């Protein structure tokens, strides 16, 4: 509707709202507190709604005016009722009326709904009687939480008072069922918007530790005591002063943050994206340090506030659960006393009054509780954690020998280890045991590898390792057989604590591991193992996904570095758990298979076997299958030049079948075949062709696969005798869960054949680009790095590419390598969330390594240019 067609009252309201927002935006920019800006915006909205109500009332049937004034009340609810509405939030309004006035109120409500829409407000409205509102609030947690935040605006004050009194009385009468349903609704919302405080792109309103958890405390407080305001809950003794102050500071921080997001975007926005984090850190004046970016400082503050909100809300909610008082009353009947300090029940363990009195100043008493919980495999009662939390500031910095021994005992038992470590960290006790956890607390890693903060990542890595005990997988089998689990768990717990410093975090981690070993009084040999695991925690992943693990020299060097089968097993498990803790889906079946392959090869070497012997056994098995067909030694001659990487990653049966098909290959013909690999849930595509069919085989094949929507994980480029190329790609097909149908394999094979026979640039899916454009601004801040390494391989120059993932990236890089007259022999493609590490083993056209530094620099520059240009594909 154009401005010319709007009612004068609507035009005036629209202008008033715009001026009010503009004024408040200036106040916000000048540094006004978030709570104040929200309260003043609420006043602006009140004035707009009252003006529109009076205008609508003035233009209604005169016979309705008196009835509406006496039998209708406008009631702000939800965030609007709470007076912390953000600049572009929805406005929630209840039209509360007497039963007899329903037909007269409905037209007025419709009129106001349309007028508010024309003003530019998103209105969430309901039209109910007092009885209807109370009944709906009791049945539906979402309606209850909105109505619990109500206040009077205009209309009949007695009618509102009647509703408020009845609703409050009903809430307290049915508080048990309401608390249960409110908590269940919030749990579901957390699952949808972020279970962890430390999600690196949180929803400020709905993720764990956000504004919604502050509101959760208010709603439960209202249901239980008839008081939603935290200040009132503190004055009545239901909330400690420390918790009240922490909530107030967190509320101010988050409201100011949310106001900034709304004002900047000119609409309701609650997800704190990477791009917004960088911008807001600058707007809020964060300067950064030598080791921390401004955005990392800002997000650490965010996480510290959300962390406190989570724990305060969790403790308050747990204390309000209906069964708590009953359980404590009957506790002596179904619990037993342990050493006079603890009571062990069917579900949980708690302190006795005597045991609780010993907690202040005694970290060993806290760890006795944790050790007992591990021993009995039971959770620790919320009231016990509250006692630990309250006592945390009194715990000394020195760690007694008994406490160190208790902590190592806790680490040796996986059943509840993650839960216990998380509880100790939440109460700020873990940093009393391992001081470096204080530095890592809420420390952001502003990169695309990690989805969580450093402390959250480390604890998740321990949890992931413990979960391996239940897996029927190589990881599960190795974990169950591992004798020194406590060393592995400790290494995982501290492996990334070296982050946030100028120096490489693995080097800092080495020193931390030594200090931790001394502090926990570990035996010298165990301390050395701990130091190795922390210092080298990236090594196995680096080799498995960025180097040719079929190279016998690599296996020998790695085996010598590791030194023993037990350390190798721990490094294998640590590497996998580290990947899994980066973010959802980062550790997949294919990566486990690749890591296990390196683990098995190295284990065989440590056991005295050699890769050469295994390779020769493989060749012999293939020859045996082809012996009756090899009258002219064609198979033998081609088998002799197959590289170790190809032989070691395929079965004798599949290699024999591949050679049979290649035997039939004609010049000008392209052979391709695909097969599903169920162990890794990937698909392998192999192409056989004479090299002279077209220039640039590799980049054309990668373009074909990428244009089909496939994620390329690795590539083997093999040249046999007579100029036959045998190229193999392992890919993930996101279009199918599990095995793709035969028609899909045929479609991709056709694309591969067409790419070599007909050429032409590939057409990439537009869907990929549109989805990735959402984060492109933030990703563009992450630098692209190209490295060239001549030290690792005797035959190849190894090129590593680190950059943000984007559409057509691999095609662009492989095309650039071709244009620079480089021959690719092996490629490993790694993707971690939105960051990729692509590795290429290359030579010049004569098969030699590239030693000339000027040419190497030209290669680096050419790849950087190609990667930047790929954004335009």
From the structure provided, what is the oligomeric state, counting identical versus distinct chains?
single chain
Helix content, binned percent: 55-70%
Assign the structural class, choosing from mainly alpha, mainly beta, alpha/beta, alpha+beta, or little secondary structure: alpha+beta
Strand content: 5-15%
Number of helices: 41
**Rg computed from alpha carbons, rounded to a whole number of angstroms:** 33 Å
Structure description:
The chain is an alpha+beta fold and 873 residues long. Helix content is 58%, strand content 12%. The chain contains 41 helices and 16 strands. The strands form three sheets. Strands 9-10-12-11-15-16-14-13 form an eight-stranded antiparallel beta sheet, covered by helices on one side. A four-stranded mixed beta sheet has the order 3-2-1-4, sandwiched between helices. It is globular, with a radius of gyration of 33 Å. 44% of the residues are buried. Mean pLDDT is 87; it is low at 766-781.
In short:
With 873 residues, the protein is α+β, with helices and mostly antiparallel strands. It has 41 helices and 16 strands.
Question: What secondary-structure arrangement, pairings included, does this model have?
Answer:
Elements: H1 8-29, H2 34-58, H3 62-71, E1 72-76, H4 78-82, E2 91-97, H5 102-119, E3 123-129, H6 130-139, H7 141-147, E4 154-155, H8 157-173, H9 175-193, H10 211-225, H11 230-235, H12 241-265, H13 274-283, H14 294-320, H15 322-334, E5 336-338, E6 342-344, E7 348-351, H16 353-357, H17 363-376, E8 379-380, H18 382-391, H19 401-411, H20 417-426, H21 430-433, H22 436-440, H23 454-467, H24 474-481, H25 485-494, H26 505-519, H27 524-535, H28 539-546, H29 552-562, H30 565-580, H31 589-606, H32 611-626, H33 634-640, H34 644-648, H35 652-663, E9 670-677, E10 682-690, H36 697-707, E11 711-719, E12 724-732, H37 742-757, H38 766-773, H39 776-779, E13 785-789, E14 797-804, H40 809-819, E15 822-832, E16 835-844, H41 853-870
Parallel strand pairs: 2-3, 7-8
Antiparallel strand pairs: 1-2, 1-4, 5-6, 6-7, 9-10, 10-12, 11-12, 11-15, 13-14, 14-16, 15-16
């Amino acid at each position: 509707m154009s401005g010319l067609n709007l009612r004068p009252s609507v035009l005036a309201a629209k202008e008033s709202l715009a001026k009010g927002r503009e004024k408040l935006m200036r106040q916000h920019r000048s540094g006004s507190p978030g709570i104040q800006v929200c309260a003043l915006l609420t006043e602006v909205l009140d004035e707009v709604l009252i003006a529109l109500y009076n205008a609508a009332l003035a233009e209604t049937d005169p016979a309705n005016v008196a009835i509406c004034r006496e039998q209708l009340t406008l009631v702000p609810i939800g965030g609007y009722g709470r007076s912390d509405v953000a600049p572009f939030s929805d406005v929630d309004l209840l039209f509360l009326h007497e039963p007899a006035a329903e037909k007269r109120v409905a037209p007025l409500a419709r009129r106001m709904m349309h007028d508010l829409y024309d003003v530019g407000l998103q209105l969430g409205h309901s039209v109910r009687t007092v009885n209807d509102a109370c009944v709906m609030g009791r049945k539906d947690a979402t309606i209850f939480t909105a109505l619990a935040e109500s206040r009077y605006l205009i209309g009949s004050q007695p009618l509102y008072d009647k509703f408020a009194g009845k609703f409050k009385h009903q809430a307290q009468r049915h508080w048990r069922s309401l608390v249960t349903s409110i908590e269940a609704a919030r749990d579901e919302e957390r699952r949808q918007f972020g279970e962890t405080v430390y999600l690196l792109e949180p929803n400020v309103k709905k993720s764990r530790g956000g504004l919604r958890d502050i509101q959760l405390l208010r709603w439960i407080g209202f249901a239980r005591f008839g008081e939603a305001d935290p200040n009132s809950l503190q004055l009545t003794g239901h909330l400690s002063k420390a918790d009240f102050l922490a909530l107030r500071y967190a509320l101010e921080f988050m409201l100011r943050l949310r106001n900034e997001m709304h004002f900047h975007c000119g609409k309701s926005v609650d997800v704190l994206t990477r791009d917004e984090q960088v911008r807001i850190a600058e707007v809020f004046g964060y300067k950064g340090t030598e080791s921390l970016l401004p955005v990392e400082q800002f997000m650490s503050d965010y996480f510290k506030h959300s962390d406190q909100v989570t724990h305060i809300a969790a403790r308050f909610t747990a204390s309000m659960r209906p069964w708590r008082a009953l359980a404590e009353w009957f506790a002596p009947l179904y619990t037993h006393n342990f050493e006079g300090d603890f009571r062990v029940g069917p579900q949980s363990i708690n302190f006795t009054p005597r045991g609780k009195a010993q907690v202040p100043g005694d970290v060993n008493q806290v760890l006795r509780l944790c050790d007992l919980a591990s021993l009995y495999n039971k959770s620790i009662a919320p009231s016990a954690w509250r006692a630990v939390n309250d006592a945390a500031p009194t715990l000394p910095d020195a760690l007694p020998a008994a406490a160190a021994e208790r902590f190592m005992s806790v680490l040796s038992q996986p059943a509840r280890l993650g839960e216990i470590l998380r509880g100790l960290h939440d109460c700020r006790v873990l940093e009393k045991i391992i001081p470096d956890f204080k530095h890592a607390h809420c420390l952001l890693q502003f990169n695309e590898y990690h989805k969580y903060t450093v402390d959250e990542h480390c604890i998740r890595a321990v949890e992931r390792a413990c979960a391996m005990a239940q897996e029927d997988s190589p990881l599960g089998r190795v974990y169950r057989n591992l004798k020194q689990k406590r060393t592995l768990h400790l290494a995982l717990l501290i492996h990334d604590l070296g982050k946030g410093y100028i120096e490489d975090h693995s080097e800092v981690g080495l020193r931390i591991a030594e200090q931790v070993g001394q502090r926990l009084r570990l035996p010298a040999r165990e301390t050395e193992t701990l130091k190795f695991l922390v210092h080298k925690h990236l090594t196995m992943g680096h080799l498995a996904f960025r180097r040719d693990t079929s190279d016998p020299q690599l296996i020998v060097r790695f085996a010598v570095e590791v030194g023993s089968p037990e350390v190798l097993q721990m490094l294998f498990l640590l590497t996998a758990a580290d990947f899994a803790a980066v973010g959802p889906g980062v550790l997949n079946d294919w990566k486990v298979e690749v890591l296990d392959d390196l683990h098995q090869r190295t284990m065989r070497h440590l056991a005295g076997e050699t890769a050469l012997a295994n390779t020769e056994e493989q060749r012999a098995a293939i020859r045996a299958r082809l012996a009756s067909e090899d009258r002219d030694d064609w198979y033998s001659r081609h088998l002799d030049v197959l590289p170790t990487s190809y032989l070691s990653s395929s079965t004798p049966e599949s290699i024999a079948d591949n050679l049979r098909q290649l035997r039939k290959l004609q010049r000008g013909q392209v052979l391709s075949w695909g097969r599903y690999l169920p162990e890794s849930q990937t698909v392998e595509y192999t192409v056989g062709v004479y090299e002279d069919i077209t220039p640039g085989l590799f980049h054309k094949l990668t373009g074909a696969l990428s244009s089909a929507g496939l994620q390329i994980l690795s590539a083997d480029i093999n040249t046999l005798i007579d100029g036959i190329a045998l190229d193999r790609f392992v890919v993930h097909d996101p279009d199918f869960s599990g095995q793709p149908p035969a028609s899909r394999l045929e479609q991709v094979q056709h694309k591969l054949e067409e790419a070599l026979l007909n050429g032409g640039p590939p057409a990439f899916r537009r869907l990929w680009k549109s989805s990735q454009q959402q984060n492109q601004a933030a990703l563009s801040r992450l630098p692209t790095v190209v490295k060239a390494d001549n030290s690792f391989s005797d035959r190849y120059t190894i090129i590593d590419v680190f950059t943000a993932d984007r559409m057509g990236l691999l095609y662009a890089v492989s095309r650039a390598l071709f244009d620079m007259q480089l021959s690719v022999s092996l490629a490993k493609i790694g993707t971690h969330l939105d960051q990729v590490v692509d590795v290429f083993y290359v030579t010049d056209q004569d098969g030699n390594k590239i030693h000339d530094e000027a040419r190497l620099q030209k290669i680096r520059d050419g790849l950087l240019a190609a990667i930047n240009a790929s954004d335009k594909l």
